[in-house]
Amino acid sequence: MNYKNYLIVSGIIFGLVTAGQLARLTFQIPVQVGQVNIPIWPSFIGLVVALTLCVWAFKLLRGDSRK
Description:
Elements: H1 3-27, E1 31-33, E2 36-38, H2 41-62
Antiparallel strand pairs: 1-2
């Protein structure tokens, strides 16, 4: 996999994670791991981190001078 494909795949994956976090926040989707209920507030952090990484990947792709 070359650098350009890596950035495209990374950007898409982080975009999907961002969409998932936004959906969880919007629709108050409950998440349970084992017997532990995960609160909604970590999704705010996940949204910001995933969105930042998604934007970063596509900015690097747009500014990439390698062919």
